[in-house]
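Quick illustration, no need to memorize.
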Amino acid sequence: MLTKKPFHFAVQQCYYRCKVDDKKNNQDTFMLIKPDTSCLLVVDIQGKLVPAVYESEQMINNCRWLIEVAKELQIPILTSEQYPQGLGHTIDSLKAILPSETVMEKVYFSCATESQCRAMIQPYSQVIIIGMESHVCVLQTALELKQQNHEVFVVADCVSSRSLHDKELALARFRQNGVEVVSREMVAFEWMQKAATDSFRHISKNFLR
């Protein structure tokens, strides 16, 4: 004859299952950026849109800083351009330091929807995103890459929108959807991993002072 398990036993089992699931989810949530599995994705910092973007000069300076750090550490860099026939190409000050062979044109707002872009991003399990606009192309790219099982990091001081309000809403939405919101220094230090290397000494001297 089958006997029913006591109600409190069932509750206890459910509790332990939930704890295990929570632990697994937390392990998946906490992740460091790894230099050997990540790329830097520069999204749509284009000539005709830059003048309209909130604090664009500061954002561009921050982006340049992180691009140069990535180059020093030999991190792959990809650049997207949204309909360049209408919005122009990447601004000259950044174009001069970006690899020309990894520039990707697109008409979809999300890089992850455009087939050429998706193919170039696919080899990298981690994608660090900088660029414009936070609430449009950066947002759609980040959320879709997350959906495609990439680990996605948006660099808060290297993205912007035409309004601060839209940028703040985008950052909140990233957090709500499991996209890591980081700073450029977080990215740099996680790429470097340790001190006492030639790269650390160079970056410390030229970028961190």
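The beta strands are 38-43, 77-82, 103-106, 126-132, 151-160, 180-182.
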